[in-house]
Amino acid sequence: MSSIFRSAVWITPILLIASVVTSKKVLANPVESNINIQAESIKLIQSQQTLTAQTEIKPKKNNVLELTLADDNFDTMSQVTSVSQLSDVQPTDWAFQALQSLVERYGCIAGYPNSTYRGSRAMTRYEFAAGLNACLERINELIATSTADAVKKEDLETLQKLQQEFADGLVELRGRIDPLEARTAELEANQFSTTTKLSGDVIVTFGGVYGDEKALTSDAWRTINNTPGGNRAAREATAYRSAGGRDLEDNTILADRVRIILDSSFSGQDRLRVILRANNTLAFNATNQVSGTNMTRLAWDTTLEPDNSIGVAKLFYNFPVGDKLNVTVDAIGGSFFDNFNTVNPLFSAATTGAISRFGRFAPIYRASNSGLAVGRGSGISAIFKLSDAITFSGGYIARNAENPLDGRGLFDGSYGALGQVAFQPNKNLTLAFTYAHSYFSAVDGNGVATGDVNVSGSEGSTFANNPFGTTAIPIATSANHYGIQSSYKLSDKFILSGWVGYTQAIAETNSGRNPVTNAVNRGDKADIWNWAVTLGFPDLGKKGNVGGIIFGQPPKVTSNDYGAQTLTTTSARREDSDTSYHLEALYRYQVNSNISITPGLIVLFNPEHNSNNDTIYVGTIRTTFRF
After folding, report:
1. SS3 assignment, position 411
2. Residue 203 and residue 194: Cα distance in Å, rounded?
3. Residue 312 predicted with pLDDT over 70
4. Can you give the residue ranges of the SLH domain (predicted)?
């Protein structure tokens, strides 16, 4: 806090001085003692570890007094040379002579830019003491410049008495300002950055997967149930052995995910964000041989180095272009669900929303198979606000843009492109129509499998994510995704949301050289469907809490051209036989603005879309710390 601020504080209340010094009518309208006077002229706020004046006050070179209310929308006072310039001051006002004397004799009065004076505003004794000090400085200036004849003797005597009476107030005022100056100087010297804000969050997970046996695919059950001769139990044992064992890995876990977020702005409207992430929340999926299915995955888990190693997981720059267009450039960790409205307001955030991966939003927003959790994704996204009711969104994100090898890079490898039109005719209803196109390469230029194929974003069945390829024979795949998402706020206590999505996956390579015996021929297609309904109950129990129920069908392959032209009862079809249902219930208890605790339960009926599989349960308590 500079000395300018000290002077500005002390010259605030000249109005009351005017009434005492130059008019015998000052006491004609005394203020009742029981009025609660609020010192509005000086309000200090502490924000971002920096003390600033809520209203900036700059003293003029001629020591003109400036009175500023904290809730006024005026920047500075305007100097007046005649009291007639103040539109709300009339000759019949009881303090007219006082104002006239201070304006025309001492040049000590300023009005607001709209030519008003606001003489009825009350002031505190501190303001009066500060104003008195300012008036004395003006008089000393007049004396020093040999204009002492402009100051009458009786005025000096009156001011001397006032100075003595308010000496204690002046000392106390100085005592309050000096510590503020020292504290502000310390904060400015030790602040993290003048352009960057540090924040973050921590998720602590307690829970696990529970049930009897792991889920097997429909092809596995087709083989078990239809192989002629032999022992069915032996065939089952073989299938479970390939899944890593028969029983679910149901040990209770205690894991964490940590994010450190650095937000910088260089114009006040742009944002450069860097996210450092560490995570050891292992995904409950088939790859890790935990449950046999992706349907049990949590919203914040990871398949990338689940050992709490720290790395840059996300980097993007966001900026406006004019009043209607907003652009985001992702360097790493880009994803459509971070850049666009997913139309599931209560459950889309991993920190505070759904506890399941499926329950956050429609799978179409994972069309690029990228994001913070995998540390991949580079591209550009834009949002154009046509009107208050209509918004267009579009983007392109490449999965391996940093890799120059053949079949990789920004335009030669796996990517996703998405376009969306969102309608919001009123504040309660949102309806979005979304289309996305994906391409997932199977191998790079050296013939090494990329592992990029992930049509449904690691949600739903094994076949819904990789409808054509196998570990032995990966198949490049493209996909066209179509989605309708909607959310309606029926009341302040109830929000109904949901989506329906359809994907047509297309094989881009052959599995062999003979189209008759090939399991996959280029152009083969697979149809994949998903849907969900979410019920949200804001402020359930107390303000800030949220209750939720999510019910739906994870992505399911309803038809597939996979397989040779001649099929047997045990032939692989990569097509789901039955229907899985996802039921999720959660309750987020907001301890305070920084801590929330969310117990939740997921029940999966017919996991992997096969009724031969046992029901699987996922129970967890998510504790989120935000700072």
Report:
1. coil
2. 29
3. yes
4. 82-146
DSSP state of 131: H
H-run or E-run covering 443: none
CB-based contacts of 82-89 (< 8 A; 24+ apart in sequence): 83/109, 85/111, 85/115, 86/111, 86/115, 86/116, 86/117, 87/114, 87/115, 87/116, 88/116, 88/117, 88/118, 88/119, 89/117, 89/119
Here the contacts of 73-81 (C-beta below 8 Å, separation 24 or greater) are 74/112, 74/113, 74/114, 75/113, 76/113, 77/110, 77/111, 77/112, 77/113, 78/110, 78/111, 78/112, 78/113, 78/115, 79/107, 79/110, 80/109, 80/110, 80/111, 81/107
Q: How far apart are CA 528 and CA 505, in angstroms?
A: 8
Show the CA angle centred on residue 570, arms to residues 565 and 573, nearest 5°.
55
* CATH superfamily, region 198-626: Porin (2.40.160.10)
Contact call for residues 407 and 398 (beta carbons, < 8 A): no
Neighbour count for residue 553 (Cβ, 10 Å): 17
- Which of 336-370 are b and which e, b meaning 16 or more Cβ less than 10 Å from the residue's Cβ? bbbbbbbbbbbbbbbbbbbbbbbbbbbbbbbbbbb
Which residue type occupies 516? Answer: V
Domain ranges of the chain: 82-115, 198-626
Rounded Cα distance between 258 and 279, Å, is 6
Question: DSSP 3-state helix, strand, coil percentages of the chain (rounded to 5)?
Answer: 20, 35, 45
Side-chain-side CA neighbours of residue 441 (13 Å): 23
d(C-alpha 591, C-alpha 545), whole Å: 9
At 18-71, the pLDDT tens digits run 444 433 333 333 333 333 333 333 332 333 333 333 333 333 333 333 333 333
pLDDT tens-digit readout, 112-136: 677 787 777 776 766 677 666 766 7
Is residue 18 within 8 Å of 117, Cβ to Cβ? no
Residue 420: φ, ψ to 5°: -145, 140
Question: Which residue type sits at 143?
Answer: I
Compute the C-alpha angle 338/540/199, nearest 5°.
Answer: 35
Instruction: Name 605's bridge partners.
Output: 581
The burial of 593, by beta-carbon neighbours within 10 Å (0-12 exposed, 13-18 middle, 19 or more buried), is given as exposed
DSSP 615: P
Nearest to 451 by CA among 405, 400, 401, 403: 400
CA distance 476 to 509: 6
Assigned token pair, 56 = 């900036």
pTM, two decimals, is: 0.73
Strand partners, 111: 78
| Contacting residues for 478 by C-beta, under 8 A, at least 6 apart | 437, 438, 439, 440, 505, 506, 508
Among left, alpha and beta (phi > 0; psi -120 to 50; other), residue 268 is left
